[in-house]
Amino acid sequence: MRMRGAVYSLVIVSLALAAEAAEGLKLRMDAITVPPATGPLVFVVAHNTGDTLYQGQVRLAGPEGWRLTPAERPLELASGETQRLAFNVAEGRTAADNRYEFEITAWDGDQQLSRQQEIFVASAPYYRPPIDGETTAWSDAIPIEFQTEGRSTTVSTHWSRRRFSLLVAVEEDRLVPFEPGASASDPRFDAVQFAITPLEMAEEGDEQLAGRYEFLVVADPDGPGRCFHLAAPDTPEAQFLQPSPLAPREVERAQVAVWREEGVTYYACSLPFLPMRDTVRPSEGREFYFSVLVHDPDGTGIRDLGQAAGLWPSDEDRRSWSRWPGSLWPEPGPRANRVRWGFCSSLY
């Protein structure tokens, strides 16, 4: 895996969706980073849902050609405790399809749990693509593809010192644009909702505040598209859980293009970093949480990158996403906006 001067995060699509073991242990992969001092690390997340202390070992096996150290790590978890266990990537190879299969094995005496997971790089290379209704400028992004009811969604990101850029490709039968004057009884339309969350706010922030930057991108029948600001870190819970009109919240200086091509809807958006740079500073090596929801009300419903990434469901997930007029929220709702992401220097 080529990682010169880069920081990459890996997120997971679990083949078993990190099911809970009989002994009360849950396992999943979290992230891989390439900090200058340590080199690339792969993290296993373990959570004890049982009522007693868990004491055992964890082993992680990577794809063919990968070598991880140490071979295994001890694991001791009190009831309700969660730990992240680091494994060094001593050797790794880049996969052309951006898919990597790992196996986590944990054992405590005679009890053993194994999980196979397919993982992919989730990182934004440095570049400012034009938002012009074309995909050619995104060829050096690191695309992440996942399936929802047999339909494909692909997410790509870039960053520069001044802007954050996102491209989401949605395979669907038709595009329903945003209509400001639509009937209040049935205002449903297609959209892409995404959140950027500083790590420190996710871990230590006020539970009554949003703690994130959140946006909604829609097609506009009279223009290239529109982007609305749904939440800022200091937005109170009562506000982001209560739908309110979108029009007054349009993002200034956002560049948006939404178009259709061969059965795929493309949402491209570029946002200024200035309102976010105090908490998500645009620099190589910076990590943050990120996730995307695709709203396809007349097709697959909500497509959730967090679910595809293997995040565990939580009672707090409902607070992770803002409500807006026309949005549909099935039960159970989407996972949290807690997919670890990183800024890297380039694809190479």
3D structure, described in words:
It is a single chain. The chain is mainly β and 348 residues long. 4% of the residues lie in helices and 43% in strands. It folds into two domains: 10-121, Immunoglobulin-like; 124-344, Sandwich (Immunoglobulin-like). It has helices at residues 199-204, 237-240, 305-308, and strands at residues 10-14, 25-33, 41-48, 54-61, 67-69, 72-77, 82-91, 100-108, 111-121, 123-125, 144-148, 151-159, 163-171, 191-197, 213-218, 226-231, 255-261, 264-272, 287-296, 301-304, 339-344. Strands 10, 14, 15, 16, 19, 20 and 21 form a seven-stranded mixed β-sheet that branches. It has a five-stranded antiparallel β-sheet with strand order 1-9-8-4-6, with no helix packed on it. It has a five-stranded antiparallel β-sheet with strand order 11-12-13-18-17, with no helix packed on it. A hairpin with a 4-residue loop joins strand 19 (287-296) and strand 20.
Descriptive keywords:
Immunoglobulin-like, 7-stranded mixed beta sheet, 4% helix, disordered N terminus, 348 residues, 5-stranded antiparallel beta sheet, mainly beta, 2 domains
Tally of distinct domains: 2
The percentage helix is: under 10%
- Strand runs, count: 21
> What's the CATH architecture of the largest domain?
Sandwich
